[in-house]
Amino acid sequence: MDAITKNLTAAQAEAVTHIDGPLLIIAGPGSGKTRVVTHRVAHMLSQGVRPWQIAALTFTNKAAEEMRTRLDLLAPGQPVWMGTFHRFCAQQLRRYASYVGLAENYSIYDMSDSKSAMKRAIQAAGVSTSHATPEQIASAISNAKNRLITPEIMQQQSGRASDSVAARVYPVYQQQLLLANAVDFDDLLYHFACLLRENPEVRSELDAKLKYIMVDEYQDTNLAQYAIVRAMSVDHPNLAVTGDPDQSIYGWRGADLNNILDFEKDYPSVKTVRLEQNYRSTPNILAVADQLIRHNRRRKAKELYTENADGDNVILRQYEDGYQEADAIADEIAAQMIAGQAEPRDFAIFCRMNALTRSLEHALRNRGLPYQIINGVEFYQRKEVKDLLAYLHLINNPSHDVALQRVINTPTRSIGATTVGRLQAFADAERIPMLEAARRASEIDTMSKRAQTMLKSFVTLYDRLRKKATASLEDLLRFLVEETKYIEFLERTGVEKEDSNPIANVDELVSAAVEFDRMHPDDGSLEAFLEQVALVSDTDKFEDSGNRVTLMTLHAAKGLEFPRVFVIAVEDDLLPHYRSKQDDQQLEEERRLLFVGITRAQQWLQLSYAKRRSMRGDIRVVIPSMFLSELPRADMNVIESQTDRDFFDDGADESYPDSWDLVQEPSPPEQAEQEYKGDDTSVIPEIYRDPFVSKPKPKRTKPTITTALQTASDLLSSDRVPLGAYREGSVVRHPEYGDGTITEVTGRGPKRTAKIRFSEDQSEQTFRLAFAKLELLDTGGD
Ligand SMILES: Nc1ncnc2c1ncn2[C@@H]1O[C@H](COP(=O)(O)OP(=O)(O)OP(=O)(O)O)[C@@H](O)[C@H]1O
Ligand SMILES: [Mg+2]
Predict the structure, then answer these.
(1) What is the mean pLDDT of the chain?
(2) Is the pLDDT of residue 683 over 50?
């Protein structure tokens, strides 16, 4: 026990050694809340609690991974459940799928899958979208799920127009999902919460099994999450939660601050521990954070203090424009590295929206600085990756209509929209999955013979693929690519984008499959792989091992820490986001978001804004964020841009935009925009009404990530073999496939492609030479 508590303060040790009974740890950033969670688990294990009796829940896979790493240091190899809420619910639902009308191999729809499913449901429900856009309908349904409102209850509500339309779509949407044996992201929580509510025997079984539940970042739980942990902590109320109300930043997806503020009311016998000391940041950084957050009215005041040594002053810097900002930041990073003060991994750059990272990427790349972006163009969202995943989904779950619609004519096989429409109508009428309908194509008399034949041959292809379902994931994927002639399709359609290479992405997906096979030699099922992919969240794939600068949104930064932090574009209309400015509560959430950003920094921090910023080709004059005027400038280094030139001396007022309407970014902040026009708790029947439900907030999205797979040095390395050196007969080495011989070279410039036959398994692969990680062993030929 000494080993576990020796590096803890008295208050931390008090929380760590508390085993039975509810526990609330409420404390500011960097005070060791997450550390307490892991130490407490280790302590419980040392006191004889069995590992399978404990579950530690959090919000990002990265945070869960970190907990796991820390626990492994204290108590190696213990099978304690640690993971995200969504993963937890996904796994429980596999066990209890039939209780909610699903089969065990159900699919998890991602954002774009859900969107297509929603479109279809809106069509099927026959509602008009003139008063409510599909987004508004989706958002209202998502809200309802977050508040555990069933379709029946929603239909009883009157309310605003978009809601009554949504109420008609909701049951149809749910029915179609069930028919497809699929759930959307909200459903994971919703179904599981409903299941616990409606099945007392399951509830008490889980309550008894998982005697010790812990939740980190409890301030971000929504009603569904609250209901879930509460239901599992009735007979054994050993629920321990940690949180910081000042870091609640997920109101837009239904998080309810009251869940933490009222914990003491929910569990009157609770033991509350406050941690006072910050171990993360310098006093300078804390002072800035503290001054800022004091401007929120809805909070309990608390002091942040630290015994850490003074560091550099926090810098507040103005730039001419976004480009100068990007260049200067990249230069600053290079300078600090050259001075031997830091390495790339020490730096993080945070922004309000993903779109803002573009010029930074450029600047970092130009200087050969390695970086990774954790942002909204997730690898798994790329077209070619989604195509192949859709095949896998359909192989795993033949009822997955969204996947079927994606692949039925990809690669193109002359199955046009009309045919698909008729197929869908037949499926809807017969209440069968579309694949089943395709099998019965000859019964669809609205369809031409030719179309029926095409469908039949698609079904034949499908059956061939499905036979491979039990092979290793790698084999399955390679077989799939080959059978569908997918690479040829990519080559034919010639999609070549500046920042992505489709064929390389296919290779990357194969690598992911190989990796998955390797990690799961025994239990690696297709279903498990798809689940993992579906649940990848924003901070996943975040490699500590890679020594890179990290670019990410403020939302994704929660819970993490970095020695050196830049927060860019602290500007009016961006932070606070213009859609949040009208509403006091939302404005306070924006302030908390900046607070979260500031408190990630350990030693060094710079906040910046520009005089002008170009967005989608438009240059706009910038007003600095109101939050900057709330900071203790006297204690900061305030550096204004030296240049006086101002393009907007004339007519500046006219060119100033009302809003950033053109800035459209499918990232969390945008969700805040979604229609919320009032508090509807009044129309929720009594049994569902929770005294703590405050403003339900719009739809959650699945946050996503991209790792910039090619580091700057990869892209810039001058010692690359010129593409012309590769020819038929050249012998090459690939890091994964081993040695092989080029059998064919086609295309020019960046499209130059080589077919390689690998000696190990005689498989043939196609690579774009500009991107492939090849080593030229022998040029071959003369
Ligand atoms: N007693 C301690 N002694 C030494 N280091 C500590 C102690 N407590 C916490 N730390 C360190 O302080 C840093 C912040 O801790 P931790 O991440 O647990 O804080 P947190 O309260 O979870 O922060 P956040 O609110 O941002 O999630 C970590 O690097 C942690 O290892
Ligand atoms: Mg933490």
Answers:
(1) 82
(2) no
| φ and ψ at residue 347, rounded to 5 degrees | -100, 140
Contact between residue 542 and residue 372 where contact means Cβ atoms under 8 Å apart: yes
What is the whole-number distance in angstroms between the Cα of residue 32 and the centre of ligand 2?
A: 7
Atom of ligand 1 nearest to the CA of 275: 21
Ligand 2 is an ion; its neighbours by CB within 5 Å are 33-34, 559
Angstrom distance (rounded) from CA 459 to CA 439? 7
For residue 698, being part of any structural domain is answered with no
> Does 400 score more than 60 pLDDT?
yes
- Please determine, for the modelled complex, whether the ipTM score is greater than 0.90: yes
Find the CATH number of the domain harbouring 619: 3.40.50.300
pLDDT band at 99 (very low <50, low <70, confident <90, very high): very high
Mutate to test the pocket of ligand 1, among 31, 35, 37 (most ligand atoms within 8 A of CB): 35
Picking from 582, 612, 639, the residue at the C-terminal end of a domain is 639
Based on the domain organization, do 237 and 361 belong to the same domain?
no
Q: Does the residue 577 lie in any domain?
A: yes
* Catalytic site residue from 216, 290, 517, 572: 216
Tell me what pLDDT residue 309 has. Answer: 94
Q: Which of 393, 412, 422 is nearest to 458 (CA)?
A: 412
Residue list, ligand 1 pocket, CB within 6 Å: 7-9, 12, 27, 29-35, 244, 247, 279-280, 559, 561
Q: Return the amino acid letter for 758.
A: F
Q: Which of 279, 285, 592 to mutate to test the pocket of ligand 1 (most atoms within 8 A of CB)?
A: 279
- Spacing, Cα 669 to ligand 1 middle (Å): 27
Over residues 698-720, the mean pLDDT reads 30
* Counted domains in the chain: 5
Q: How confident is the model at residue 464 (pLDDT cuts 50, 70, 90)?
A: very high
d(CA 56, CA 46): 17
- 206 and 68 share a domain? yes
Q: Which domain, by its residues, includes 572?
A: 305-377+541-639
Identified catalytic residue from 136, 174, 221, 247: 247
Sign for the CA dihedral angle at 587, 590, 596, 598 comes to: negative
Residues 400 and 520 in one domain: yes
Residues 407 and 353 in one domain: no
**The CATH number of the domain where 158 resides is what?**
1.10.10.160
The domain boundary residue, chosen from 607, 639, 671: 639
5 part of the active site:
no
Q: Would you place residue 602 in the very low, low, confident or very high pLDDT band (cuts 50, 70, 90)?
A: very high
Same domain, 207 and 345: no
pTM for the structure as a whole: 0.73
Backbone conformation region of residue 168, classed left if phi is above 0, alpha if psi is from -120 to 50, else beta: alpha
Rounded Cα–Cα distance for residues 315 and 337 (Å):
18
- Structural domain contains residue 497: yes
